[in-house]
Amino acid sequence: MTPAARLSGAIDLLCAIQNAPHRPADAVANNFFRERRYIGGGDRRAISTLAWDVLRAWRRLHWHLRADLRYRHEDVSPRLLCAAMLHFVGQPLSSIQSLFSGERYAPAPLSEREMVMLEALEGQDISSEKQPLPVRLEYPDWLHPYLVEDFGDRLEEEMRALMGAPSLDLRVNLLKGTREEALRRLRREGFQGEPTALSPWGIRLEGRQPVTVAALFREGLVEIQDEGSQLIAAAVDARPGQRLLDYCAGAAGKTLALAMTMENKGQIVACDVSRVRLDGATKRLRRADVHNVTRHLLSEGDKWAKRREGQFDTVLVDAPCSGTGTWRRNPDARLRLTEEDIKELCAKQAAILDIAARLVRPGGKLVYATCSLLGAENGKQIEAFLKRQEAYTLLPAEKRSILLPEELRQEALFSLTPHGFGTDGFFVAAMEKMSQG
Ligand SMILES: C[S@@+](CC[C@H](N)C(=O)[O-])C[C@H]1O[C@@H](n2cnc3c(N)ncnc32)[C@H](O)[C@@H]1O
């Protein structure tokens, strides 16, 4: 594809994202490329990169383009956003104008009005001290007081780290081979990667390499999983022979890692309320050679949980959450999140925790995790849980997982952030249910 055709693709993709305001952008993009199978891998990456750069700079681009208040929100079209983004990454206006040539596969020429709007950007940087903090750091206005409370002086550095592109991490499936073996195979297949600093099974790839086409991925030797998510699985410390419940298993991202630390021995039940997500787990479990997982679809009025009270050695609650820790990957999610969502999510998390608490056997463990950065969904949620559920305490030091690096074993609960650890944002709390009597 020519650069102009790629630009056209990015504009079309952003239009598709804009036309589906309630759907996550990555789901829209998957659909977009499925319907355009003629677009090859390199072109796909170029199109997505520009579209995602725009999504990551959404508030700042709108701030610039609507600096002249005569312009309405509708004037800021995906065409203009892409052109402005190209300007801010250093392309001269004349070369941007030549991409909008109107020739075959190229976007239509820039109108006079569009040119005026773009010319006004000359000599400016995308971030400006004049922008209010939520604009400069790309988060919704209403979230500001929450972030001030949670991060205090660290707010700027934490939120800035969340604006960058994420790393691409793999987890080596020890059921199929070692990390050294996986690194050797990756190099042989032309990929560049290094062992992760914190996860014992992780490999961090350089840039965005098309690893899903690699033979070692298709064979199940590696799985795509952020290092932070791997560390949540490490915190669970699932051992061979145990009976474990992954209560919000989704498409089994963490279940796979738990089955690995259990060496495929014992039993994992993977539950979720979403059939689509649980179905998505089947193929991944097969590819990874995992045999000790059964799945259960939770439904309203389901007696399943009632019948299994006190039966599990460990229950993991990887709770539905705001996903604020994954904003590097899903920058569009910032635009959809509302204060009402946070309130609803907190209530849901508390309800799930209370059900899960009953499923743990006396002396067993409950692990709560989110990919949120917000105290309301994390520390405060656990504080309230421990007040409600007197049988539970935070896991004592001697029982914490030795799969975790020393620095993460100091407390029974910890947070990971892109700024602090170079991972997605995660929170985990490990608790123990006291034995009766
Ligand atoms: C953070 S995601 C789980 C991600 C998954 N554990 C992984 O590692 O890939 C949260 C999951 O909770 C599920 N969920 C939402 N409400 C639930 C409920 N009331 N009970 C159990 N699962 C629920 C969602 O369908 C979603 O799959």
Summary, kept brief:
The chain is of the alpha/beta class. It contains 20 helices and 12 strands.
Beta-strand percentage?
A: 5-15%
Domain module count: 2
CATH top-level class of the largest domain: Alpha Beta
Quaternary state reads single chain
Q: Which percent range fits the helix content? A: 40-55%
Distance between the termini: 71 Å
Dominant shape: globular
CATH topology of the largest domain: Rossmann fold
Low-confidence stretches: none
CATH architecture of the largest domain: 3-Layer(aba) Sandwich
Number of distinct beta strands: 12
The average pLDDT score comes to: 95
Radius of gyration in whole Å, from Cα?
Answer: 23 Å
Q: Name the ligand types.
A: S-adenosylmethionine
Biggest beta sheet summary: 8 strands, mixed
- Going by helix content, strand content and strand pairing, the class is alpha/beta
Number of helices: 20
CATH superfamily of the largest domain: Vaccinia Virus protein VP39
Keywords: Methyltransferase, RNA-binding, S-adenosyl-L-methionine, Transferase
InterPro entries: MeTrfase_RsmB-F_NOP2_cat, MeTrfase_RsmB-F_NOP2_dom, RCMT, RsmB-like_ferredoxin, SAM-dependent_MTases_sf
GO biological process, one term: methylation
Protein name: RsmB/NOP family class I SAM-dependent RNA methyltransferase
